[in-house]
Every structure is written in C-alpha cells, then in structure tokens.
Amino acid sequence: MSFFSETDKIPEFYMVSIMNAKFTAYFVDSFVNSTSHCTTGDAKLIPIIVPTKETLKTFEKLFNSAIETKKAISLETISLNEAERKLSEIQERLDTIVNELYGI
After folding, report:
1. 90 contacts: CB under 8 Å, gap ≥ 6
2. Parts of the chain with a pLDDT under 70
3. pLDDT score at 65
4. Can you give the pLDDT at residue 38?
5. How does pLDDT run across 75-101, given as a tens digit for each residue?
6. In sequence order, which residues have a C-beta less than 8 Å from that of residue 4 and are 6 or more positions away?
7. Could you write out the DSSP letters of every residue in the chain?
C-alpha cells in the first residue's frame, strides 16, 4: 500500500507513523474492516488529525529512529536484541503519542 499526502500539512512519515500505531489497527478492526488486511480503501476511512509543528517534529524523530534502527540491523551494526529493544521503545512511545493525539 502506498501513501501520498494531498497537503503539505500532513507529510508521509506522519501518515506511516499513524498507520503503525496500535490505535489504528484497533480502529480498522473495530470500525472499518475486521479481516486481517487493511486495503487502500480502508486506509481512506481512518481519520487523520492535522498535527501541530511540534507534534510533527516528535513523529519525525520517532520515524527516523525506527528507520535508522532497521538500517543498522541490515548493516549488522547492532545486535538483534538491541534492535528489538529500541524498536519496542519506539513503538511504545508512538502508541502513547497517537493515543494522546486521538484523546484516548
């Protein structure tokens, strides 16, 4: 599935981050499509909150941290255990921020 923003207020890294939050999986499963797949049509039904500049910076930092950790795995500059720990921390922080953003 590809994401393209139709406004510069919502960059792609933000949409990808929202899609990777546990809230979004719950929302899609509960209100959009209860199968194991999220289609492009399903994704269009997910409410995307326009973030503040400060919120965008936070999301971008988390997104970049996840990307750098994944790159480090492929370059073998980080152990799998350390990478899993870092990615778990990033996921936990992402879920917290998304929950706050959506008032959960």
Report:
1. 62, 65, 66, 69
2. 1-7, 29-45
3. 97
4. 62
5. 999 999 999 999 999 999 999 999 999
6. 12
7. -----SSTTS-HHHHHHHHTSHHHHHHIIIII--SS---HHHHTTS--PPPPHHHHHHHHHHHHHHHHHHHHHHHT-S-HHHHHHHHHHHHHHHHHHHHHHTT-
